[in-house]
Amino acid sequence: MAGVMTGFGNFTHAVVRAIPSSLAKEALRMNVLDVDLVKAQREHEVYVGVLKHKLGLQVIELPADESLPDCVFVEDAAVVCGDTALITRPGAESRRKETEAMRRALKELDLNIFEMSDENATLDGGDVLFTGREFFVGLSKRTNQKGAEILADVFKDYAVSTVPVTDGLHLKSFCSMGGPGLIVIGSSEPAQKALKIMQQMSDHRYNKLTVPDDIAANTIYMNLPSKGHVLLHCTPEEFPESAKVFEKLKDHMLIPVSNMEKVKVDGALTCCSVLINKKAKV
Amino acid sequence: MTTEVGSETEVKKEPEKAEEQPAAPEPPATNQTDEAKAEEAAEQSNESPALATDSAEAPTEAKENQEEAQPADNATGQEGEDPPASPPASEKKGISRFLPPWLKRQKSQSAVGPKESQVTPKEEGGVVLVKEEGEKAEQAEAEQTSLTTAAEPQVEEEQVKGEENKETEEGGEEKKDQEERLKPEGGHYFIKSPLKLTKKVKMVMCHVTMLDGSQFPCEVEKRAKGQYLFFKVCEALNLLEKDYFGLSYKDNADQMCWLDPTKEIKRQISNASWQLAFNVKFYPPDPSQLTEDITRYLLCLQLRQDIASGCLPCSFVTHSLLGSYSLQAELGDHDPDEQRLDYISDFQFAPSQTKEMEEKVVELHKTHRGMTPAQADTQFLENAKKLSMYGVDLHHAKDSEGVDIMLGVCANGLLIYKDRLRINRFAWPKILKISYKRSNFYIKIRPGETEQFESTVGFKLPNHRSAKRVWKVCVENHTFFRLMTPEAPTKAKFLTLGSKFRYSGRTQAQTRQASTLIDRPAPYFERTSSKRISRSLDGGSHLWALGNFISFFMYFSQMRLHFLIPQSGKLRVQGENIYVRHSNLMLEDLEKTQEDVLKHQASTSELKRSFMEATPETRPSQWEKRVQETVVVEEIRVAPKGSVTITTPEVVVAVETEVEKPKEEVIEEVKEEVEAQKRSVSVSSDSHSESEEEAGEYHPQVTVSASVDQIKEEPEKEEAKDHEEPDQVAEPVAEPESLPEVEVDAMPSPAVVEETPVAEPETALVAEEKEEEEEEEQPRVNGDVSHAETERIPQVICCSEPPVVKTEMVTISDTFAAQKTEIATKEVPIVHTETKTITYEAAQLDGSGDGEPGILMTAQTITSESLCTTTTTHITKTLKGGLSETRIEKRIVITGDSDIDHDQALAQAIKEAKEQHPDMSVTRVVVHKETELAEEGED
């Protein structure tokens, strides 16, 4: 059994969910944009393919539910850290049922499941940034204090600090972990402000990688046995300037993944999967 | 014996001189004439705590004077024989008998109250500070004078001891007290001694809950300070890295409070139960840096307690993992044949543990096969230290809007929690000032990059007490984790105005440094089970009967101290509740670091000593400064009064003999007298170290810097201080000035006021007196045998004088010069040059040497060990005002049962030292004795 806080970025499994046809019209979005459903689905297939074939993760693919247009964004339904999983209570009423399929999937993976049963609590996984040493929880339109408290209760080993998110949908709409101790952060004022708060609240020091585009700061970092540091990030087609920044990460295996359609409904790279480290039973 | 006589003679002279001088200058002078009484009065006035003792002392002093007179005669004639007779021989305990009356007085004074005694010392002080432990007076005697007659002292001591014991047992405390007053009190441990001074020593049984759940009963004097008990506990645990720990108690509101080591226990514990607990006070952020397994083990016990009580929240997985390491450490490898689940359920791994968790624990336990207990502890700590609430001390509070929050004080700063969420964090570097007022607690925040003004954040605590408690914890944690030394070197640093409270222990940096010096085989200790039903380990198992540890400290140098320097009043600043911290502290500290390191290294022996002796640890610089200041005051007073009373802490019998050089024994004697006076000063310093508790009360914050600047000797004298001293030396120049300033700011504490006025005039007088006395005395002294013993030691010295700012100093120096001239002629030329200044200092005793800052040129420590003795030689070369001074400090630790003849050992050691360094004078001999608990109790 691994000790506390070891193996940041080690993942063996991923939970994803297919895109329902309803996404194009009914998925929640902050800006009114038309989504090309087919393109989005193709995009998602590539995404899952990278996880499954390129990175060798065991991918659990949940079927789409037409009554849940946002169900592809599985990240918001659960927070998994180590052997513990917290099934969230998404801030958007329409998304609450997304957790059911997620709960079943995680139970099958034999994780310790915690529920967020408090009716006053809301929390989207997109607001939860786990750095390897601690949690930052964005207090946003989707996540409230109570939800953060419950998360803190579940993950008792870690400090849980709250960060106000005034702009953008989620905390991770403008930041993510790009490696151990490396925070990728957007350059917008709200993003920089949030970073300062995180730095002040933390007992640990983090390096930062600033990218011109906030949404490009959403990346997926993994540390895989055969691959080393792996970073899934935006493509040069989407954000040419930001993509250049990632080129500086010489130690990382860089994998540009297109996300042009899903981003229209505020979906970022991290939103589309729940990563799990399921080690062989000790 | 001869020495004693000599000293006596000197004493007589001194008083006379004192009288003469005093008349002119000031009351202090008169005091000298009046001697003991006056001094006592002054002391008392200055020092509130020791009042009782003082009163007691006064009579003693009177007696002493009488005695002295007699001895003086003897001295003129022959020194050796007198000592026993002079003191109320029968009463006196071994060493004390040998010691000259004044010495005894000193001791008694010291015993009474280190603080007070310090003040008084002048008359006697010139002589030697002898702190005799009531029980084992032996050493003190040996030190100063009697050294020559090793055999006699020994015998006497033995007798004395026997008597003492009998007395103590039979006569009861009162008798002892009386005896002690008159004579040197028994050498209780430093801690105890102050208490002992009191006429009636009431003993109280404390019960300390150890980390394994066992009870440690410990009898302490009713007026014992927290430190005494703490050291007893650490001693019982065989714990050297004790700075991370502390004693706690529950106040009336059932709130856990830390026992202030510098204050009397009974003044802190509200209830009559005297029930305390031994706990980790500062959780080391990286336990792997601890030196000893036993320290890690104790930390593990604390963490298991924290985890089981829910204070340290963990996830299920972590509970299981930590539990499995606990099993491995306590049970060893998992035994597959044994059905242990039932057994396992006796252990508590979590506040509420399930069968599932127990199974998980066992499952994990299997994976630790082959791991030693120490390795398992290490793994336990490596995981526990990562927990977010590790080492966070939580306090309930409300924010400005009345919302319930928690304040978490930790190594890195102040954390603000709302429920379980961290909503803010103020790292120490961000905090400019910490204060409290009524039930409010405030932190002033350094302005951010874009901000222009500092902001103050206020929190509402449930009540005033809790506000102060948070404040204290903050001050302590900041000091411990962020500062290199507790002291505030410069004025600037020492902005601390505010409550007198400061952290007085060693900082983490210091304790780490000290730990590197730990050189002992890993002590054996039994890992007790963490079962819910704690085994009843009797305290007994943990109580190790301590053999008698006697260590002798000899300081050779030519310097005299001028302790007195003006610093006295400075330290105490009464701002009640403000603690100003410099965010730059670390940087500043870093600058000091190298010096400190050197010093620390030098003080290695000291560390050991402190451990062995249970000497109080070094205090924070601030504390030291204050103490020193205090000391200074005392010295001044002493000078006028002439009384030697030494503040010496109970334990140690410090005899400082300053033998000016091997040249003439006479000189030595004279010096001894002088020294005695000085010693008194030094004693005061000692008292600081020893009785941080005692001294602390008065001058809670003694800044090291002050001590450094002014008094080098004092620091040296004090074992604990030694470490500090080096630092002081380095920094001194700046500090002295600063101190004065500080004083201004400082509250006009009574002590200060007294000190200041008295000091200058007194000093002058003293110096004159001393000179006269010395001159007269010296010749006589020369003949004395006693010198021989003490004399040889010395190495060095030169003097230095330092740049003491005060006029007083000057006067002193003159005196000294006079003395030296006579004596000096014979002595090293160097001395002459420096002479006046130096001499005076010498005359003043401690003050001269100490006061001078100087530049530390080199420092080296040599340690040699034999069967039951460890000799540590610490050689420091310092440049002071163009003069180079070499100081050799030898520490000889004799470990063994009471059947060892300590007196002989001491005498032998001193002889050897003298032989080794014929050129040097012995400026001080400190005998530190540690006895078994029982004995102490007797005292």
TrEMBL record, chain A:
<keyword id="KW-0378">Hydrolase</keyword>
<dbReference type="GO" id="GO:0016597">
    <property type="term" value="F:amino acid binding"/>
</dbReference>
<feature type="binding site">
    <location>
        <position position="142"/>
    </location>
    <ligand>
        <name>substrate</name>
    </ligand>
</feature>
<feature type="binding site">
    <location>
        <position position="28"/>
    </location>
    <ligand>
        <name>substrate</name>
    </ligand>
</feature>
<protein>
    <submittedName>
        <fullName>Dimethylarginine dimethylaminohydrolase 1</fullName>
    </submittedName>
</protein>
<comment type="similarity">
    <text>Belongs to the DDAH family.</text>
</comment>
<dbReference type="GO" id="GO:0045429">
    <property type="term" value="P:positive regulation of nitric oxide biosynthetic process"/>
</dbReference>
<dbReference type="Pfam" id="PF19420">
    <property type="entry name" value="DDAH_eukar"/>
</dbReference>
<dbReference type="GO" id="GO:0005739">
    <property type="term" value="C:mitochondrion"/>
</dbReference>
<feature type="binding site">
    <location>
        <position position="265"/>
    </location>
    <ligand>
        <name>substrate</name>
    </ligand>
</feature>
<dbReference type="GO" id="GO:0006525">
    <property type="term" value="P:arginine metabolic process"/>
</dbReference>
<feature type="active site" description="Proton donor">
    <location>
        <position position="170"/>
    </location>
</feature>
<feature type="binding site">
    <location>
        <position position="70"/>
    </location>
    <ligand>
        <name>substrate</name>
    </ligand>
</feature>
<dbReference type="InterPro" id="IPR033199">
    <property type="entry name" value="DDAH-like"/>
</dbReference>
<dbReference type="GO" id="GO:0000052">
    <property type="term" value="P:citrulline metabolic process"/>
</dbReference>
<dbReference type="GO" id="GO:0016403">
    <property type="term" value="F:dimethylargininase activity"/>
</dbReference>
<feature type="binding site">
    <location>
        <begin position="75"/>
        <end position="76"/>
    </location>
    <ligand>
        <name>substrate</name>
    </ligand>
</feature>
<feature type="active site" description="Nucleophile">
    <location>
        <position position="271"/>
    </location>
</feature>
<feature type="binding site">
    <location>
        <position position="95"/>
    </location>
    <ligand>
        <name>substrate</name>
    </ligand>
</feature>
TrEMBL record, chain B:
<dbReference type="InterPro" id="IPR018980">
    <property type="entry name" value="FERM_PH-like_C"/>
</dbReference>
<dbReference type="InterPro" id="IPR019747">
    <property type="entry name" value="FERM_CS"/>
</dbReference>
<feature type="compositionally biased region" description="Basic and acidic residues">
    <location>
        <begin position="9"/>
        <end position="20"/>
    </location>
</feature>
<dbReference type="Pfam" id="PF09380">
    <property type="entry name" value="FERM_C"/>
</dbReference>
<dbReference type="InterPro" id="IPR007477">
    <property type="entry name" value="SAB_dom"/>
</dbReference>
<keyword id="KW-0206">Cytoskeleton</keyword>
<dbReference type="Pfam" id="PF04382">
    <property type="entry name" value="SAB"/>
</dbReference>
<dbReference type="InterPro" id="IPR018979">
    <property type="entry name" value="FERM_N"/>
</dbReference>
<dbReference type="InterPro" id="IPR000299">
    <property type="entry name" value="FERM_domain"/>
</dbReference>
<dbReference type="Pfam" id="PF08736">
    <property type="entry name" value="FA"/>
</dbReference>
<keyword id="KW-0597">Phosphoprotein</keyword>
<dbReference type="GO" id="GO:0003779">
    <property type="term" value="F:actin binding"/>
</dbReference>
<feature type="compositionally biased region" description="Low complexity">
    <location>
        <begin position="750"/>
        <end position="764"/>
    </location>
</feature>
<dbReference type="GO" id="GO:0030866">
    <property type="term" value="P:cortical actin cytoskeleton organization"/>
</dbReference>
<dbReference type="InterPro" id="IPR011993">
    <property type="entry name" value="PH-like_dom_sf"/>
</dbReference>
<dbReference type="GO" id="GO:0005886">
    <property type="term" value="C:plasma membrane"/>
</dbReference>
<feature type="region of interest" description="Disordered">
    <location>
        <begin position="666"/>
        <end position="787"/>
    </location>
</feature>
<dbReference type="InterPro" id="IPR019749">
    <property type="entry name" value="Band_41_domain"/>
</dbReference>
<dbReference type="Pfam" id="PF00373">
    <property type="entry name" value="FERM_M"/>
</dbReference>
<dbReference type="Pfam" id="PF09379">
    <property type="entry name" value="FERM_N"/>
</dbReference>
<dbReference type="InterPro" id="IPR014847">
    <property type="entry name" value="FA"/>
</dbReference>
<dbReference type="InterPro" id="IPR014352">
    <property type="entry name" value="FERM/acyl-CoA-bd_prot_sf"/>
</dbReference>
